[in-house]
Design brief:
Layout (H helix, E strand, L loop, with lengths): L9 E6 L3 H10 L4 E6 L6 H15 L3 E7 L7 H10 L3 E5 L6 H6 L7 H11 L8 E4 L3 E5 L20 E6 L4 H11 L4 H9 L8 E3 L3 H16 L4 E5 L7 H12 L3 E7 L5 H8 L2 H6 L3 E5 L8 E4 L2 E5 L5 H6 L3 E4 L3 H16 L1 E4 L1 H6 L2 H10 L7
Parallel strand pairs: 2-3, 3-4, 9-10, 10-11
Antiparallel strand pairs: 1-7, 2-5, 5-6, 6-7, 8-14, 9-12, 11-15, 12-13, 13-14
Helix pairs in contact: 1-2, 10-15
């Protein structure tokens, strides 16, 4: 177990179901604050277990806030929200769906109507909060791809064995991460917004936050440059891979130079149309020397990057949703131990994946390529 040493930066890579026990243990020892931002908060056994731990913390004086996404969390319902609110926990919905009563009630405003909520929805429907972060006592931080859901549990334990990667960090500065949470929560004064809006952007941040257009653009340009300057390897694990033309060309160019480019994707995706769109890139990637692997055991939901000696874990996919629309949070790994763990996990996943070659593409149903190419016309929204 990690000791909470505030003077030491520690990082632990948590795979699949190992995230939740660690998270709950930290909730149980929280003293002051717990801020949670998640795309999905399921009303299942894990959601109820986390709810119970949060309510217990709140009863002992810990201030707890939960921010969920309107589309990602449609089924949390009144039972859990009532339980949370009764314990004094604040819960908000990012861009709520007006036809879901519990979401509308969480963001209720006596002066607003259902019609105004519907009009607001259409103005922001393409902007979602896909982040998965938790900040405990402004000292312990969780960042990764795992939501609060039983899907990460093994099938034996009632889950679907989803393959996710989360990082637990301690002893790290959380100022900008906390600001991003407050901004999404809706509680940042205009003076502070202006101060953050015009300050210089760190080209090598620990936390990659895309809450503003400037941040989003800077992160994308930096990522492209990192890829282009790679000398040895680009190892990508991604759940929803639908690159734009610029990113695709950079990958092809680097692979052509002899860099070891490997992309690991799900064999069976939970979003069928995204897997069809991803499939359309296989041929050109393979022809330029990019190795493609499909993870076989379960849904691959992790999002990790290894570019030479730069390691990144988070919620961002290599698709238009993450690059242009959704709020995301990633963390750049600093410690050697965590880097080696992430590297070894990638190797372990490769052993459970099938490598795709050109001949495999000929065996695929013809309609997949046609449908996939048609879907590229709407890739801006994917």
């Amino acid at each position: 177990m990690l000791m909470n040493n505030r003077n030491t930066n520690q990082e632990t890579i948590l795979i699949n179901e190992f995230y939740i026990p660690s998270f709950i243990a930290d909730i149980q020892t929280a003293k002051e604050t717990i801020d949670i931002e998640t795309y999905i908060f399921e009303n299942d056994n894990i959601g109820q277990e986390v709810t119970h731990a949060l309510c217990h913390a709140a009863h002992h004086g810990v201030r707890v806030r939960i921010l969920v996404d309107g589309i990602g969390t449609p089924n949390l319902g009144n039972k859990i929200t009532t339980q949370l609110e009764t314990a004094g926990i604040a819960i908000r919905v990012f861009h709520p769906l007006p036809w879901l009563i519990w979401q509308w009630w969480q963001t209720r405003n006596p002066s607003s109507s259902v019609i105004s909520h519907i009009l607001q929805l259409f103005s922001v429907v393409n902007s979602r909060n896909h982040s998965k972060i938790s900040i405990i006592d402004q000292h312990i931080v969780y960042v990764g791809s795992a939501n609060i859901t039983a899907k990460n549990l093994t099938k034996k334990n009632g889950g679907e064995n989803w393959r996710d990667t989360t990082v637990r960090l301690t002893g790290i500065k959380t100022e900008e991460l906390q600001y991003a949470f407050e901004r999404n929560w809706g509680g940042v004064p205009i003076q502070k917004r202006l101060r953050f809006a015009f300050r210089s952007i760190d080209p090598n941040p620990v936390f990659r936050l895309n809450y503003s257009w400037r941040n989003r653009r800077a992160l994308y340009i930096t990522l492209l440059r990192r890829m282009l300057h790679c000398k040895e390897r680009i190892w990508i694990t991604n759940a929803y891979f639908v690159p734009d033309d610029v990113l695709l060309k950079k990958l092809l160019r680097v692979a052509k130079k002899g860099v070891d480019v490997r992309i690991m994707l799900p064999y069976q995706s939970d979003v069928f149309i995204v897997s069809l769109a991803s499939y359309t890139f296989y041929s050109i990637l393979l022809k330029h020397g990019v190795a493609i692997y499909e993870y076989l055991p379960s849904m691959l939901h992790a999002k990790t990057l290894i570019l030479d000696d730069w390691y990144c874990v988070g919620s961002s996919n290599l698709n238009s949703r993450s690059l242009r629309h959704d709020l995301e949070v990633d963390v750049c790994i600093q410690t050697l131990k965590a880097k080696r763990a992430l590297e070894q996990q990638f190797v372990n996943d490769l052993e459970q994946s099938q490598k795709i070659n050109i001949n495999d593409l000929k065996k695929k149903p013809w309609y997949k390529m046609i449908v996939g190419r048609l879907l590229l016309f709407i890739r801006y929204w994917m």
